[in-house]
Amino acid sequence: GPDEFFYGAIAVSILIFLTYCYLWFKPWFEYRWLVESINDKKLKFIARESETNAIDKFELARMYIQLKDYPAALAEFEESEDNFWDVRPALDPEDTMGALASRAQLHNSKGFALMQLEPPRTAQARREFVRAVTYWPEYPEALLNIGRELIKRKRWDVAVRTLNTALKWQPGSYYLQEAVSEARKGLEESLEIWEDDDDNYEL
Predict the structure, then answer these.
(1) 3-class SS of residue 52
(2) For residues 159 and 165, what is the distance between their CA atoms, to the nearest angstrom?
């Protein structure tokens, strides 16, 4: 009856209001949580420095990236890189791949932060991405970043090879699939231009 409709409308209205409040305040709560996490991590360096290592610096740098404070992130990445020798004791002695992957992630994240600066430090970022795959040759995220840089420089054939390698390890990645499609399209168009130039030359 009318009462059921009335109470139902009130319930829906309350639900919509609570959803709106959640969406409105969610970014603020996430920001506060991130700032608190950064402060807790920094406090650890002050109060329990002997228990920290380069991985802690790396994690702090990643938090700064989330905060979009890229200069602070780069400063932490530099310190992490300088002290990366102290990471190995914290890992399993037989976990060689874990140490290499950690170092690769450091360089890839550092390259990302360099690309976010104004103006972007593209050449330095490119070197960091290359260093990342030096430590972990099949690292999909680093290969994707290298591939995107190759696309910008219109080096289509190398971009396709690089991105295809990454796609073997993450075949379901939307970003990799999109980048591969862009690189293949650019390669096909460049080959068509070359063929047209050859035809003109023969004429």
Answers:
(1) coil
(2) 10
Contact 112, 145 (CB under 8 A): yes
In the block, tokens 């009130």 appear at 10
Radius of gyration for the alpha carbons in the chain, expressed in angstroms and rounded: 24
3-class DSSP assignment, residue 31: helix
Q: At what angle do helices 140-152 and 156-169 cross, to 10 degrees?
A: 160
Dihedral over alpha carbons 45, 50, 55, 58 (to 10 degrees): 20
Write the pLDDT tens digit of every residue in 34-69.
678 777 777 777 777 666 777 888 888 888 888 888
AA letter at 167 = L
Is residue 68 classed as helix, strand or coil in its secondary structure? coil
Q: How far apart are the first and last CA of the chain?
A: 85
DSSP 71-132: HHHHHHHHHHHHTGGGSGGGS-TT-HHHHHHHHHHHHHHHHHHHHHSSS--HHHHHHHHHHH
Return the structure tokens found at 170: 């993450």
Reading the block at residue 120, the tokens are 């972007």
pTM of structure: 0.71
